[in-house]
Amino acid sequence: MRVLGLVHQYIPLRSAGAESHVHAMLRALAQAGHHVDVVLSHQVGQPYDLDGVHVHPAVDMRTDANPYVETADLIVTHLSNTTRATVFGKFNNVPVAVVHHNDFAPTRDALTMSWARTDLVATNSEWMTEALVSWGIERQLQLPPTVIVRPVADPASYATKPGDRVTLVNLRRSAPGTDNGLSKGGEVFRALVERMPDVQFLGVTGAYGVQIELGDLPNVEVLDHVPHDRMRDLVYHRTRVLLVPSNYESWGRVASEAITSGIPVIASPTPGLVEQLGGAATFADPEDIDSWETALRALLKPAAWRRASKAARERAAELDDIGRADLAAWVEAAERTVATGGWHPRVLAEYLV
Fold this sequence. Notes:
Elements: E1 2-7, H1 17-31, E2 35-44, E3 48-50, E4 53-58, H2 66-71, E5 74-78, H3 82-92, E6 96-100, H4 105-109, E7 120-123, H5 126-138, E8 146-148, H6 155-158, E9 165-169, H7 186-195, E10 201-204, E11 220-223, H8 231-234, E12 239-244, H9 253-259, E13 265-267, H10 271-277, E14 282-283, H11 289-299, H12 302-339
Parallel strand pairs: 1-2, 1-5, 2-4, 5-6, 6-7, 7-8, 9-10, 9-12, 10-11, 12-13, 13-14
Antiparallel strand pairs: 3-4
């Protein structure tokens, strides 16, 4: 079958968790023998191939997806392109699969628009699926079929010998009035750098969001945005402990990448991170800086670090098995959606059986 990805940006230029996850899903379809094109709406440049996926950047911030839609058997989309893609599917009679990374209204509401079309939803976690089902029940909506596809971090791409730095990937700080004030924990990171001058830190500029300013603090090094294929050598090879102090995280791809090397993680107790890491991480409230400092100082002690590293490696192996099974289920669900002609949404309560 011919698969069309309609997304805003793509790896390696935008190496964020959502983009890496969607690429893994599209790569799995390509590896299964399907032809996969990706048309970008907000990234300019020359066409390129990546792992069997044919990527077509926009030209002068304009893109014409119509030729690809006309020959597609399945459209795959996420985030800001969700509404656009589901409308394309509706008016071209092409099934649409939506990758659901969060439970925010813009992408969630698009799943049941009467003037659009969604045939399959791929959530990134069990808690996201449960939240979506609860939302549908509350509104008496019949939702499309759902498959869980947890983000995979291939050990062959990320595993390395840990280093000596305490690292935060994406220095995004809270910026009220933009993107719901979401933060990746830049404020927590800066506070720890200031409080712990005896510890060496590593910050990595994120692919999006307002980044925290660290000035000339002597015990921190900041790297510009790092492409996904350089993360192992430039980031994880230098990292002893990874911090994930986000105030919202539906999963946490950087944590999955880090634990493949046995790098312990201190994280916020968001539903996604708790499901993902379980007992293999230390959890701390991002509003309580004291708890982060206490947890970090404890984890930097050799014996505690070795125990946490062992737990991280064990959890990474479990997630690797789960992720591979999820990708296989995703390919099967995508193929079934096309073979059956898709699922036609019935969103009014009176149509419910």
